[in-house]
Design brief:
- The protein contains 4 helices and no strands.
- The chain is mainly alpha-helical.
- Helix 1 packs antiparallel against helix 2, helix 1 runs antiparallel to helix 4 and helix 3 runs antiparallel to helix 4.
- The two termini are 23 Å apart.
Length: 138
Amino acid sequence: MSSEKKRIGACPLLQSVLNAIFFVGIQTIFAPCAPHEEGKWTTCHWAGEALLGIAAVMLVMSLLHLLPLRTGMKEGLVFAMIPVSFLIIVLPGRLIPLCMMETMRCHVIMQPAVTVIAVLNIVLSAVYLWQHRKEEHG
């Protein structure tokens, strides 16, 4: 192993686990409301579908960050995770409407869960960038 290769840090590993939880969770425990009895989807279904796509992208980015890539590429992945995380926050209920009743699953479980995951992704990205800049500049 060359001296330039570094071990995997805690932030990229935590982000990979967090985004795996996000990807699996949005399909299971954080899933939006079920379809109506007559088979029609609720409005929040489409927010859940969009979040599933975003969760897949976040998972791929966090897994790529675990590979032995150049520092600039790793920083680029981390920088890309920040605006995508903000998209996760604004998508359910703002960009794509949720159900009308505030007591529905999409309001009570899905929206808070994905907001927490997005905030944690932003924090982990910021910590990684701060640590990396600190190491780079002594």
